Amino acid sequence: MLALLQRIKGSNVTLKGDLTFVNNWQYFSLVPSAEHDQLTTTGPYAGTLSAFAAGTKLRTRYRHLLSSPSHRRLVNFWASDSNRVIETARYFATGFFGLDWDSRQAAKLHIIPETPDLGANTLTPGDTCLRYRNDLLTGHDYGLIQLSKFRSVYLPAISARFQVQNPGIDFTDGEIYSMQEMCGFEILVRGSSPWCNIFTRDDWLNFAYARDIIHYYRAGPGNKYGAVMGRLWLDATANLLPKGPDAGRLFFSFVHDGDIVPMLAALDIFPSKTHLPVTHREKNQAWKMSQVVPMNGRVILERLTCEPSSKDRGGDPRQLQRHHVRINVNDGIIALPNCSSGPGASCPLQDFLAIVQERGREVGNFRKMCGVREDSPGRITFLHQ
Hints:
The strands form two sheets. Strands 4, 5, 6 and 7 form a four-stranded antiparallel β-sheet that branches. The protein has a three-stranded parallel β-sheet with strand order 2-1-3, covered by helices on one side. It is globular. It has 14 helices and seven strands. The chain is an alpha/beta fold.
């Protein structure tokens, strides 16, 4: 976006029509190089505020897990080694555990490196899955390849619209797309953005779908490496669930949005019979980034312990199971396909574990799929209290 602004200024063109505001618009960061990829600290949608609010909200929901007599005093939690992710974890902890969580040792934050040498013992498998990183056609860059195809479908019409208003300058697909991205970025920092007003509703629906595409094919169900990378965290969490409170009552992990996506692919919680098309906008797909991984997105696995009612004791034997797993995605309960017979659309624990085991067989072995050395860690080992 900065390159586009510099090009506009260098062209000595006075923009007209929808883009008139750009003539006097100032970039929202005074020091872009220092603030790029950092947690936002201003505006009503600041990352610092959102993280703190999320901690407060979840404390309200799960406070009973903190106050339980059997609960251990110190809670370990984890963040990948990115400043933005670490700061998010700290602000969340302040909302959840209180202002002095660190000094009174209510919780301890563990930083997990984002380095390629960790093998499977990582929160960021996209950094350690070597084939995913090096496969230029169907690896990490596959999302950008598919995005480029769909951008060529909807962006030329927008470019033509701006061209009519401003015949003195042409805009590339990438520049138009960056204008759409700028709407969201500026809202996060300033609370509003004039960039949002220059696009139609249909333009925004196409942009939302473009975001669906890039994540779907970058590390989601549309990428052959996605599910096997997501299997790592899913397996580690599934291993904790049968142990219940003995393993710990609370586990929090903080990562990039691109690291949440593979886990959802591994769980196959948003199944689709066909891959997302890139020649047109799919209108009824289950995979929507605005719902799957929005800003400050989160996925929660809840272990429920329930006693069946007297009327249920003679019914479905699965209802008699005491332990269930419920999936909460961004404050919405999502039923696991073919496993929602428990209370609140939950899945009986043993059935859930069987599904995870079967998915593991389907998606394959991380070391083999990713070309990781046999002597490197084969699983996550740090996730424990």
